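Fold this sequence, please.
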Amino acid sequence: MEILPKAEGKFYPSDKKALLKIFKPAQKTNIKSRLLIVPHAGHDFIGKNAVTAYNYIDESIENIIIIAPAIYSRIFGSVSCDAEAFLTPFGKIKISPANLEINNDIFENENALTVQLPFIKYLFPNATVTPIIYGCEDYNNLQNCIDTEKSATVIVSNLSRLVPERESKKLDEQTSRMIERKIIQDLDIELADGAVGICAAIQYLKDNEKFVNITLTNSAKTNHDTSSVVGYGFWYATIQ
């Protein structure tokens, strides 16, 4: 079984050449991490920044765990997928399932996870992915799903939602400070729809490790609508 995400053609082009125009140019970095926080949105909104962020992952990585919130599905706990592969405009990505309940149908529709796939296939063409979607979940359970020794882990979350741009910037700067200072108290879905995943990642870090912000941006930078804005943030962890 192969899964063609419904995000293709809607959140990102199905044509490889069109995708490449969005992705390039992307800023390169010599910093290499194994734990990121990235947003989910159409590639017109996050594409170039996302490619830059994914460049922070060690290129030797052979498996990438994606932990994303359920946006459309009602889930208690977390689920994974044991299909053979996801289909992307750059080719197939083989799936390495997590040791969780399996629910393949959910993964067609949940774009918070599937919009990440073209970035991974583009930059890590031989890597497998371990897909995890969570709903009503304890961040301590998600923390057990994070691996930065044999894999890299990507935590997916948008920030402020559907507020004026001035308020969005204020909220997102607050959230960024909380993430960088490793404060999980009051970090909830009002600030980030993937707050549970972010809290899991913060708890996963050792005392001398932290998240560093790559960039903060928002939907108004692309569609110029400052009245109803979604915030996007990118961070890498200083994994020792």
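The mean pLDDT is 94. The radius of gyration is 16 Å.
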